[in-house]
Design brief:
- The chain has 376 residues and is of the alpha/beta class.
- It has 15 helices and 16 strands.
- It folds into two domains: 262 residues, Queuine tRNA-ribosyltransferase-like (TIM Barrel), CATH 3.20.20.105; 104 residues, no CATH class.
- The protein has an eight-stranded parallel sheet. A three-stranded antiparallel sheet has the order 1-2-3. Strands 7-8-9 form a three-stranded antiparallel sheet.
- Helix 10 runs antiparallel to helix 15 and helix 11 runs antiparallel to helix 14.
């Protein structure tokens, strides 16, 4: 039985419902990243209040600190972090392969690496990461994959595809938590032949959903969007499609238009921690002196706690004084901005007007960027 229902289409774009053990997720859906069991600085009830329906946890980090067995002993990740909605956990593959100086050995059985916490050798296999995610009790578990950077030789990219398929075949049948869904991850970068091969090899394994991995890893934006445009339709139409690692407004609109249902990124909270706000005026550096006496909210139309209760002047003061409240308010606002943008795109798909919605949004953002350039 499928966990996903497409409820409306508009060109390649889809609106749908993803059913999980902890509730339904309307799609397209932006997923805030809670790497270590928390979306940095925010409480679960605050995430609910700004419209979050699903969050991410990180298998690599939770395995090492505090330990997946400890989390299982305390009732699983939902109970541990106090979040009652759906959770997706990655496999840890991206962390292992992006921290290339910690790699010790990669073979067909798995990967050996040094922990970033204490430097001790550790090993991940398809079976072991499945067991970790079963202990965590997430609603969606991701398969272990090899995610190379964009500039690797084609031979290395082909080997990543081969081993990703080999590992997916093994993890597909590994034990999982009750009700836990499992997604396969395609690799191949922007290489049309290798990406198509990866998808062709994964689809017969009949995963609950499929991800496009190995993009947004250093290739130029035009190449990335082109790859999403031709590869998303290769994924099964009746299953959720997940793009791993995009969170800027323009990028979100592009992947939604290409038929992507789910996406995640640390951008909104990381941007907040640098003191910047995502708005329809563009990205605002709240440390800037021009906001010192600005009585306006960050965004006139935003109902988030930062915009409803505080001025730009106050938030600038908090940020410049390194007050935690400033970073929390910016995190709430940035997430709400992207969640509202995604919800607006979903509504536009249901009306059959995504092209107009996207064009209007990009025009607003473009005018904002032009204004910033003229101001500087």
């Amino acid at each position: 039985m499928s966990c996903f229902t497409v409820t409306a289409t508009d060109g390649a774009a889809r609106a749908g419902i993803l059913q999980t053990a902890h509730g339904d997720v309307p799609t397209p859906a932006f997923m805030p990243v809670g790497t270590k069991g928390t979306v940095k600085s925010l409480a679960p009830d605050e995430l609910h209040a700004i419209g979050s329906t699903i969050v991410l946890g990180n298998t690599y980090h939770l395995h090492f600190r505090p330990g997946d067995e400890l989390i299982a002993e305390l009732g699983g990740l939902h109970e541990f972090m106090g979040w009652d909605g759906p959770i997706l956990t990655d496999s840890g593959g991206f962390q292992v392969f992006s921290l290339r100086d910690t790699l010790l050995e990669v073979d067909d059985a798995g990967v050996t690496f040094r922990s970033v916490y204490d430097g001790a050798p550790a090993r991940f296999t398809p079976e072991s990461v499945a067991a970790v995610q079963a202990n965590l009790g997430s609603d969606i578990s991701m398969c272990l994959d090899i995610c190379p950077p964009a500039d690797v030789p084609r031979e290395e990219l082909a080997e990543a595809v081969r081993r990703t398929t080999l590992w997916a075949e093994r993890q597909r049948h590994a034990p999982r938590a009750p009700g836990q869904l499992r997604f396969g991850i395609s690799q191949g970068g922007s290489d049309t032949e290798l990406r198509a091969r990866s998808i062709d090899e994964l689809v017969p394994l009949d995963f609950d959903g499929y991800a496009l991995g190995g993009l947004s890893v250093g290739e130029d934006r035009a190449t990335m969007f082109d790859a999403v445009g031709w590869s998303a339709p290769l994924l099964p139409a009746g299953k959720p499609r997940y793009f791993m690692g995009i969170g800027d407004p323009e990028g979100i609109l592009e992947v939604i238009a290409s038929g992507i249902d789910m996406f995640d990124c640390v951008l909104p909270t990381r941007t907040a921690r640098t003191g910047s706000a995502l708005t329809w005026e563009g990205r605002l550096n709240m440390r800037n002196a021009r906001f010192a006496r600005d009585p306006r909210p960050l965004d006139e139309d935003c109902p988030c706690p930062a915009c409803a209760n505080h001025t730009r002047a106050y938030i600038r003061h908090l940020v410049n004084q390194d007050e935690l409240l400033g970073l929390r308010l910016l995190s709430l606002h940035n997430l709400r901005f992207l969640l509202d943008l995604t919800a607006g795109a979903r509504a536009a798909i249901e009306r059959g007007q995504l092209a107009d919605f996207k064009a209007d949004a990009l025009a607003r953002l473009g005018r904002a960027a032009l204004g910033v350039m003229e101001a500087t």
